[in-house]
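Narrative progress, year one. The postdoctoral researcher (J.K.) led the effort to move from monomer predictions toward full complexes, under supervision of the PI. The following entry was the first complex the group processed end to end, covering 1187 residues in total.
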Amino acid sequence: MDAEYFLNTGILFFLFGAVGSLIIPGKAKEYLFVLPAIGALNLIISGLYLSSGMEMRIVSVPISSALEFVFRGDPLSGFFVTVISILVLPVSIYSIGYIKTIGNKGSMGFLYNLFILSMYSVILSGNIITFLISWETMSVVSYFLVTFDRDEKSTRAGLQYAVMTHIGTAFIIALFLILYKNTGQMDFSSIKTLATKLSVDIKSIVFIFSVIGFGMKAGIIPLHTWLPKAHPSAPSNISALMSGVMIKTGIYGFVRVSMDVMGQGPDWWGITIIIIGAVSSILGVLYALMEHDMKRLLAYHSVENIGIILLGIGASMMFRSNGLYSLASIALIAGLYHVLNHAVFKGLLFLGAGSVMHAAHTKNMEDMGGLIKTMPFTAITFLIGSVSICAFPPFNGFISEWLTYQSLILGFKSSSMTSKIISPMGGAALALTGALAAACFVKAFGIAFLGMPRSRHAGNAKESPLSMIIGMIMLAVLCLVFGIFPNATITMISSSAVQLTGSQGIVTGNWFLYINDTLANLSPVSILITVLVMFAASVLFVLGVGGKRKTIYGASWDCGIPSLTPRMQYTATAFTKPIRLIFKRIYLPRRELRISYHVKPFFVKAIKYTGEITPFFEKYIYEPVTISIFKVARKVRLLQSGSLHLYLLYILVTLILLLMFGH
Amino acid sequence: MEYLQFIIIILFSPLIQGFIRKLKANMQGRVGPGVFQPYYDLVRLLHKDMVVSGITSWIFKATPYIVFASTAAAAIIVPVITTSYRFGMMGDVIALIYLFGLGRFFMALSGLDAGTAFGGEGSSREMTVTILVEPMMMLSIFTAAISAGSTNMARIAETQSIAYSPSHILALSAFMVAIIAETGRIPVDNPDTHLELTMIHEGMVLEYSGRYLALMEWSHYMKQMLLFTIVTDIFFPLGISTTLGISSLGISAALYFIKMFCISVFMALVESTRSKMRFFQLPSLLGGAFVLAVLSLLTYIMMGK
Amino acid sequence: MKSWIQVFSIIDFISVGILLTAIAMNAFRRLESYLRAYILNSWLLSLLIAIVAFMIGETHLYIASVTTLLSKGIIIPLLLKKIVRQMAITYDDEPYISTALSLTISGILVAVVYTSLSEGIFVIGFSKHVLQISIAVILIGLFIMITRKKAITQVIGLLCMENGLFLAGFSLTFGMPIIIELGVLFDMLMGVIILGIFSIQIKRAFASADLDKLTILKG
């Protein structure tokens, strides 16, 4: 019973799930989702084995004399396998209940299992061909999942997603071609041993291509525009997987190519990544703040969290180029821990959003309200997800952000002046995004769940079915567990860090973490216990001093107005108005006010107010590029005139050219 | 025994608040309430019934306890009169700031819970001020931490007795502006008002009464005293006891109260000599303080001290 | 006394003070506060020269300090105040860039100067920091000139640049030759007087002190 066994068993379950969804009829299709759940469980165990350092060479399937599929497991892939599986398990259970609302259950099940399998395949690939084929499969299957609803918005979102992800894939193919041409090898481990002989220029080109190619999948600014359209269009359980793990495959690819296979690089690599991370995190959350579509808000937050992950990874690369290996290890652990945390809490939040949308029949936060009373379980799990994503103790987000802060402060120890300035500023950027994220989730949770319902549907909302609740509760519990027991998780991540940087950075005692280089301690368990004790103490104290007191229920303070209607509450747009004004140079907001009168100017008939922010990247970068591409395409179309004679002429000219230059 | 130094914060914070109020009154030519008035207020509130809005949920009732618990937990991390105690291992400055953030998150939620516009406005503005203040606060703390070699509060307090270097003075200035914003004092927010045009903190606690209000106010005083203590620990830890000897503890406690006195005088001065700023002028003020924090970092890098 | 100055890093403090007042000029809209920042800047500059003179013991530096104090700290400010009073303006409304943004850019300028000058310049003792600060002050003065609309604020930016230049020359050579310094000062003085005359004329002709209006003069 070792890693291989669990891996094979798990994969089999997924295959059964895929095939079964197509074959087994009608009613039972929902319960088929138990199969991927069990598969995921197996893979968690397998991933844990891998992370603990057992390398594993699995089946290698030859296609032809030159090509073969190679799968390989090492601590880094083991970690990512575990992350994927930890999310797949609760999401599958959630899907059992969620599927009831979906029309085409069979194809959903099939695509779902295939999607997950393709992600595993990407992570476990051992050579270029396997990687590329798995990557492409993953993109294609996710395209079908994005356009699952077959309505107009999903189709357009899917189209944009397909185009952009293929541009990214083009860069990835290019970089692999460069690697192959210069080393003559397909296998990752062979490339790694030969990579030390590559010139710095070639390495830098590969690095830049990997940033663009993998960054497109991960969703860094400015390559992120597909994310807020594609993730919300997919069904909610798929959105959870896409945001939770699919964009992480971009991070995996990047770490694999730039840190593992290519080994060390010059200083500016790490600094570039830190800057990209800081910019993505700040802009991501700024745009998230302005959304009132719940799923788009969460999608923009994924951009922000990828930025945070890149802060840690960039710091790690920077330390490695300076030879500070134990610091590099700490930074890498910070980044990878956040990969895990984000998968867990973002998955939870998307599942919660799905739950809410299912009950309130709307995506728009401005139509919700008061859901905490009718959907208590969804509310409390969403609250836990929100507290975790804002990185408050004692939940998991705090641990990874704490570790990221520590590694950024340590950036001071590197030698170049630029990194001495950029690292603490990265820390300031992290503080800024933390505060922005807190504002965003106060808005999201507060407007959607608290107060009075703003629409009839919201007033009639009912709690979700049991399987959905169980899925969400599992993730919420994981948020807490990863927050108060970081030691086990860090031990699991450490082996990947050791593999890549060759050193252990963090000491873990029984109850706390300890970083040698900054003499900083953190004991999340103690914090939790202290908070709980203080909570209890305060309850006892007020009861003791005040005695038993009545609670009288009345109306909210309304300044004497006869009755408060739900429309008098704060809206999401109003909540973020100060932020919109302060950052107006980034948002470029526009507003339009049209008032129609019965009798000017005393009797108003109707007021129409539109306000919007400028989608900067779409309008000023992507639209011009697309328009010019269309222009060029129109000109090229002239080549295809449909005339037979012209085509024959083309053939003649090509033959002549070949004759002249062919040898 | 040293584990109980946080009780000083819990017990004495209303006194500091009363003291600042008395100083303000004197500076403005009034007699003002007594120095112990906050204590009387708290006791009075604890003995009253609570009036709660029907629109609110369990979050409204749980928030006062959560805010109190997180602030008290933060008090445990900060060394008040001695650095030789094991609770300091629990967390560092970053944990401290995020614990404050936890309390603030729930306070903002409770503002939205009652379904009124006042609460919404208070929450919205509070979170906006936080956005402007956090980077500056983090950056000044980073500079201090980098120069002390650690983010652990006890360690920072032990490395120097008075922070005296251009970068530290700049960091201190930025941090004082941050404290004014965090404690909700003029020129950022007016703690004595109930007019909706000027409420930030008051807007969020508007719906609270009875023991809930007592806990919210008490947590506010505790947070204030804690922030003052952080300033003395990072920038003027002169005299803080590193052992558990009675005499060193006594000297440390006396010096601590003197420092609190000085900071209170400073806050009262600032409040009495300024008027509250328009909310949308705050980015200029806080942006300027952020530049100070950046300068402090740059100066430290350049001068090495 | 000398060791006291060194231990308490007085020189560092004063140089940072010079930098701070230069940056602060970005933050003020009222001409009076603006002018005060410049006055403080010049006084700190002369104080710095005096202290260095004390530490090294060269008397001609005392003369330089007193000259700076008189010309930049007293005479030019008085002139400027007179001009301002005559033109009856108090505000520099609407600079091209908002206060917050110009503060940020000043911070970035300082960072850029620090990173680019951190290596490769070997100067004596304390003067490396002072050199970096002086170049930062020059750049900030230039930046102020670019972003202001009123002629008078532009001139103050120019004067700030001149302060920075003087400090730079001073830190590299411990005192530019007096003749050159006197020459530059004289130019400054003439410049301010001419500016005053022109500003009043511009105001009379266009009824506004805004330099933007000068674009009307295009053919």
